[in-house]
Amino acid sequence: MDNFYSYSVLKYRHSVYLDESINVGVLIYFFNENRLIFKHAQNLNRLKLIYSNPPERVINHLFKVINEFTLKYNSSNEIRNLFFADESAKDFDLFIDKEILKVDSNSLYFTKSRLVENENLLSNKIIIDDLVSTNIIEIEGSQKLKSKETFLLKRFYDNLDGLDFERINRTSKKFYKDYILKNETGTEFKFDYAWQNGTLNLVKPLSFDLKDSRNIADKAYRNLGQFIDLQDEARDLNLRYDLLIAKPENKSLFKEYDHAINLLSRIDNSSLVFEEDIDNYSKKAIKALIESNDL
Disulfide engineering: 197 pairs with which of 96, 119, 185, 288, CB 3.0-4.6 Å? Predict the structure, then answer.
C-alpha cells in the first residue's frame, strides 16, 4: 500500500435543503509515511461573496481542531498504529467520522474518501499541491472577486468626491457609510453606502465575475432570498435597494448571468445599476444630495 494515498474533501453546505456546497479543505493520508495532511482555505472571502453571514468562527474553529489533531496524530506512533491497523479507504472514512467530524454534521462535512494509486511515483508535495489547487478554489479566486466589488463601490464614491458631507448631513442625515439594516429577527445586513432621494437608497455591489455557472446561480438565489426577506423593511422604512452589477468576463457564463439578472429584477423596491451606468447613477445621487442641501 506504500504507493497509495487517500483523501477526502471538507465542504461547507449553506443549506441542508439545497444540494449545494463549497470546498473549504482537504484531508490527505499517505500510506508510505503513515501521515495525515490537512490543507484549508486561507480566507473565506469567496464564501462570504456567495452566502450571507456564513459561520466564519465555526469554520475557522474546525480548521484549528483538525490542524491540532493531525499534528498530534503525526507525532504519535501509538495513535497511528491504533487507527490504521487495516489500511483501507473504508477505514479512512470511519476514522474521519470517529475522530474528526461526524458524518451527520450539518453545515460542514467530509466527502466519501478516494483511494488513489501513485502510479507515477510523484512526491507527496506534488500530490498535495495538486489536490489543493484542484479542490480549494477559494484560495485562488477570492481576491479577484473582492477587488471587483470594491472597484464598483470605489467608482461610485469617487464620483462623489468634493461633496461636503458634513454640510449635507447638518440638518438631517442624507448620506451614510456602513448603513446597518436589521430584519424582523434582528439579523444585521450592512450596506456600504446609502443616500436620500425621497427614498433611502442602500447601495450594494454584486460581482458575477465568478468561476462557473453554478456559483453565479448560487449568488443570484442567495441575494434574491435576502431581499425578499427585506421587503417589509423596504416598505416600512421607505427604502430602495440599489445593486451595482458587474458581469462575468467569461462569455460562456453570459447565459447564466442573464438568468441571474432576470431573477434579481423581480425584487420589489430595487434598482439594478450595471457597471457602465455607475457614472450616471452617481450624477443622480450628487444632484439629489446637492438639491436637498439647498432646501
Answer: 288
Which are the contacts of 58, defined by CB distance < 8 A and separation ≥ 6?
107, 108
Q: What is the pTM of this model?
A: 0.54
Distance of alpha carbon 106 from alpha carbon 91, whole angstroms: 22
Q: Determine the Cα–Cα distance for residues 77 and 162; give it in Å rounded to an integer.
A: 67
Classify residue 228 as left (phi > 0), alpha (psi -120 to 50) or beta.
Answer: alpha
Q: Compute how many other C-beta atoms are within 10 angstroms of the C-beta atom of residue 38.
A: 18
Between CA 176 and CA 203 the distance in angstroms is 10
HSE on the CB side for 12, CA within 13 Å? 25
Q: Model confidence over 182-240: pLDDT tens digits? A: 988 888 888 989 999 989 999 999 999 887 888 899 899 989 999 999 999 999 999 99
CA-to-CA dists, residue 219 to 10, 51, 86, 138, angstroms = 21, 7, 43, 15
d(CA 144, CA 141): 6
